[in-house]
Known about the structure:
mainly alpha, Arc Repressor Mutant, subunit A, two-stranded antiparallel ribbon, 2 strands, globular, MarR family transcriptional regulator, WH_DNA-bd_sf, DNA binding, DNA-binding, transcription
Amino acid sequence: MANEIEFQFKTPNDSPGYLLGQLTMLWQRKLKKVLDPLDLTQTQFVLLAALGWLSKTNKEVTQIDIANQSNTDRMMVSKVLRTLQEKGFVTRQEHETDTRAKTIRLTPDGENVLQKGLVEVENADKVFFASLDTSLSLFNKSMVQLIDQNKSI
Length: 153
């Protein structure tokens, strides 16, 4: 039976999707090690970071803004934000002009854990991607290109 299975790629190392999946799993494993002591999952960290980034220029950050910034599902964002609220890292309040929306803000504890997480994750990224050396900029540009081309999926 296995002899009848046809693959487009000659080897797994010729498949960009397979390689991306392998790389993502290894990177997520590394991030889990640095985020576990902060009682954060990678998804929680990503949403806190998106909120922190958006809050630098906008006082009325909504759940939709966070979902758009992080390219994540809106319903999942809602559930994770509730968990972050329970942990005391964010507040959710009625939006001043849009009754359907909530304004999301970092609490002082949220700012603190986000700052600690940023240091840990950025240091982990430096180590994880160090072997790319001078190719890192091209790697980043390629990832941005792929993200931009596939956002609507």
